[in-house]
Amino acid sequence: MDCLAEFKNKKTEDHRQDALAQLCNYAKQAFREQLDRRFIIGFTLCLDELKLYLFDRSGVLEKAFVLTISHLGAQKSRTTSSRVFNSLSRTARMGSHHLNPADTSYDTQWIIEVNGKLYITLRAISIANVEIMCGRATAVWEVVLFKDFQANRIDSPILVLKQSWQRLSGQEPDQRLSTIPFEQYAYERLGKTELNKLIQDAAYVRTEDGSELVTTFEFIRKGITGTGTSYSLDPVGSSKHTTTGSRTTSGSRGTKRKANDSTVDISGSIDRYAFEIFLADRDALMLGDRVTKPVSRTQTRILMKTRGYPLKCFKDLNELRMVFCGAIRNHQKFYRVGVLHRDISQGNVIIAICDDGSTCGRLIDLDHAKVTAHDESNVLLLQTTHCVPDRILSREMDGLVDRGIFVTEDTIRRACAPILSKLDPSAVHDEIVDACRSGVNYLIDVYKRFGLKSSKSQLLTPKDFRWDLEFQDKPSFENHQPGDGNRTGTAPYMSYQIIDPLGNVAHDAIHDIESFFWLLIHIMLTRNGPGGSRRDISVALAGVLDLYFHGDPGTLSRKKGGLFLFSKKYEDAQAELSNLMVHFDSYFEPLKNLVQQWWNLLYFAHKYEAYELWNIHANTLRILDKPLPGPSSAQSEQTNAEVNRREEYHKSTLDAIKNSTIAMRPQPRTPEKRDRKATSTASAQPVDPVSQIAGHGPSKKHRKEKATGH
């Protein structure tokens, strides 16, 4: 497929928009079925109006001109359009060859090069997002070294290869990001020992001759970009969207402009050079007025040693709980070295396979992470020049005793410290008094809502309130500069503060922990047991999912916020949670108390921004790290089925290496709608892997090996 086209017999605004939307759908399908495709060229012809487009992972680039084809000038227009098409075609090569393609993209094996070494894919783990434009378009496979595959070495380490289109982070902590992918850079923050446990190799993809990186702006588009205005279909001749591209300047109509060495007559065309078209989702075209800076992306490959199963395929509730514990511990490790994940989702929390065959939770995929600068110091907590005056301390102590709350003086000081730390050093006496009163109210609120008990003979200390700081400081992301493009994260699981379209809260650890919370809630609403078993979705449940997970950002923020600070009272927020928990599948009944405690922690962390916030990792793990009662016999049957599935999965992987074929898919399932041809779980005959090489065609050496059988 060299070029896509859509034709309309009229050139009204509706016809132009319909033609472009349909062309975008064609492009998405082409990206989905041709995993090695780096860009696509297409055109629309609405009556006599021709427009050319280039589709890549930075969006859709519209050529500056509209060729008006008349009966007298038809031959000239065809010649001109051919020259423009050829000019665009030379901006990048496809990047691979399909000599013997399989029935579907899931059943195709690839040989992929990473830093000079060849790896062959055993199975596709995730290729559902390769169709995405204006995004990473991530594809993930299980792979082994090609030479080990040829030798049928079943002891060869099985790795996970992720290929994506990465954009640079908002700030560049050092110049190393020009030579290594951001994700590798972030993993290096953990230290060399941890890095070697997790990452095998990583590299930016380069052209066949190694002369330049494969990027959307420079390599594919050859530097042609728009000004960053989202696409708007204006009447022909409108001057509303006059822009200046990187290789041309705006001018009056009837002039000639040079684009990629092709002189094009743009008489009567819309006066613009290049525009970005942003796709809102997989089915819709965003035609808004929002101005967004275009984002250049670089093709990246990273080899990970961590393999595992999808989160939804937990074998029992204790494993599910354990996986969340492991992933949150990973998050804490990254956070302490100045790396904030920012994209908690079902795809990024996995049931990892450990060296001894056991499983553990693992947080993966740092593409959306933000990092602190190397010279950025951590922020010390509880820095204040103020203290609780003795007179106020005595008065508040008496007031608490009258309420039946018995605490030490140090506990009152600890309760007031977070509020006092927010005061200006020059704060007057009345401001200090008000801060102390707020601190005592904080103490009373925590005492009541966390169910603490005290007596005259048992005074509560800060330790009883969990107010001993786990760390005396926290990473500072205050100077982090947002990257180009839209705000990052997976919308269904994003914190109510981060997804708020009008919000300006800086992303921090509390928001990722809230995302973990929503991830667990989603599983409890949509699953009915181990092994990825999905429950029937009733009309009522579908409505709940729409409100909390599938709505627009404003709706999601308001509904999720109802569980936290959008409710006027604690009791109102508690009622929101109770109404949500009614819809949990009965299988998850043993987890309801855990959810209640976790929500309570998040509520106070958001409300007071004090110890519950500063100790968010430790407090969350304290809730999750408690074994649940053993499963019932019915649950054990489902558990056994999942254990058997994992054994078959492992056997299929080894058989693929032993028999030089492709492994079965991670889960037996019916053919996906996106695959037009019938699918199979394993190839009956060995697939010739040399015929499909991602990044380049078969070398002479490989062709010789194929011919001689060596």
Automatic annotation (TrEMBL):
Cited Pfam families: Pkinase_fungal (PF17667)
Give the source's domain of life in one word.
Eukaryota
Q: Where is the composition biased (Basic and acidic residues)?
A: 643-653
The record's section on SUPFAM superfamilies has: Protein kinase-like (PK-like) (SSF56112)
Q: Where is the composition biased (Basic residues)?
A: 698-710
The Polar residues compositionally biased stretches are: 632-642
Fungal-type protein kinase domain location is 3-375, 468-523
Q: Per its UniProt record, what InterPro entries does this chain match?
A: Kinase-like_dom_sf, Pkinase_fungal
Q: Where is the composition biased (Low complexity)?
A: 237-253
Residues covered by region (Disordered): 231-262, 629-710
Alphabetical list of PANTHER family matching this protein: FUNK1 11, FUNK1 6
Query: Which protein are we looking at?
Result: Fungal-type protein kinase domain-containing protein
